[in-house]
Amino acid sequence: MNKIFELISYLNKNTKRKLIFIFLVIFVNSLFEFMTIGAMVPFISFVSNPDKISEIELLKRTSDFFNIQQTNELFLFISCAFLITIFLSGFIKIFSLKIINDFSATLKIELGKKLYKEILYRDFEYHLNTNSSQLISSQIQQLDSSLSVISQFMLLSLSVLSILGITISLFIIDYRIVFFIIALSSLFYVIASISTKKYSIIYGKIIFETRKTIIRIVQESLGFIRQIILDDSHEFFIKEYDKNNIQNSLAETKSATIAQIPRYLMESLILSVLVISIMFMYFSAFDFNNYLTKIGAFILGLQKLLPLFQKTFTNIYSIRQEKLSISSVVQLLKETKKYNKNSRDKLVKIFQLKNNIKFQNISFSYKENRVLENINFQIKRGEVIGIVGKTGTGKSTFIDILLGLIKPSSGNIYIDGNKMDSNLFRRFRLSVSSVPQDYFLLDRTIEENIVFGKSASKIDYYLLNKVVNIAMLQDLINSLRNGLKTFVGENGINLSGGQKQRLAIARALYKEHSLLILDEATSSVDSETEKNILENIINNNPGITILMIAHRLQTLKNCDYILEIKNKKLIKYQNISQYKSKSEKK
Predict the structure, then answer these.
(1) Which domains does the chain carry?
(2) What is the pTM of this model?
(3) Is there a contact between 401 and 364 (Cβ–Cβ < 8 Å)?
(4) pLDDT tens digits for 543-578?
């Protein structure tokens, strides 16, 4: 229950006010339950013995207050009043369910946005160390399960208060019988709740874990589909999926069965007690007519109470079962408090590179493995720098540190004399365009992929056509029937590797930033096209600072100098020829 209140604490004030209103409506609903059962007594008493109206205080006062003289008129009045109470009670129930369901939708919108925002705003290192399938599970399945728990909690409150209203009404009629019924029902469901607690936890854990695993398997198999087809390894993933899907389905089925068992046991128990009571009264020559009113009221009460007891039990069972889901969502939301929310939401001013970037005693280790050690270096604005090194030497790590995506183990970075922190890095990244090795294309048009994040009304078509020409995409676009409006497919599946790379370059150039990072950005295009693209970039963007990572040395021909990352150190070469000669000597 603590986790439920903790989750509710993340709601805004207006949503919390709605929650208070819901509980007020639930309370009114319990009052109408009380009135429905209470009105049953005078109604049945009137029908069973109209001549004794004067003995029923409520009917006598009603007759006197409204000055009703005729018995038939009084009966009609009482009947109408009883019907109005019944219909109002039904209306309040429907209204209660509606606002609870509406509130669930509000929760999904509000908490869904908060959770998604939290995931997206986490730093790069967090995403490196967290499985994306786990985050997808948190955003979709675990969030839905958590919202379901809050709905169950509100329905639990509705059931408990309804039980209270009915119980008070029956208690006034005959406290001994109601005490027996409530004691029997409560004892039964307490025992049922204790007995099934371990199953709700066990099956809840299985459902929680298999949901995450199923998402991971589907995500991996679809992302790896080319290799799966080449290796004919479909059955491996199908077996993995099937195994987890079976576990998930069986756990859900068994859990659903256990949640419903008490209902049928309770019905059998109550009916058995009722039959035994009738048998006892029959053989005791019990006068049913004298107790017809109470019997009718208690039958109505039982008809209402039994489903409510079952709902209460089911709600508690469901809350226990989804304990892991709600804990996971709360934990993610709790971590938002560690960050400055205001800095996330407000617009930030771009921090442009004007003079230089200095690396001062930069070292970086990954899980006790030293990648970079005591790097001291300066990059001047407008330089075109080539970065080389064997796979795994730390080229991409060097870039990630430069961009503030990961923190160095020691040392500092200064840009234009400013010691960089998380806020300055965020501003600085707004002035950087990057074409990484693992670039991602949206399943949208070529145009939308290039202008990335801009609405149609804010597209600069002059700049768009300019970057299309620089990236040498014009021939491709002219050959397509829909031109820039052509859809590229999921991650650019409708394009070749070279076309995708050129599209990624055009996207980076459209931003018109002062620093451009190309990480194997032209590895899939032919040498002549690569040469033309790089010359176009340099000639059309005077003053731009460019860092190029490449294995193909020809790519670095136009660089001002070469940086080699080797043995955790940074080695500078004046040009590609010097690098070649030193490499050949080694």
Answers:
(1) 2-338 (1.20.1560.10), 356-585 (3.40.50.300)
(2) 0.61
(3) yes
(4) 899 999 888 888 888 888 999 888 888 888 888 888
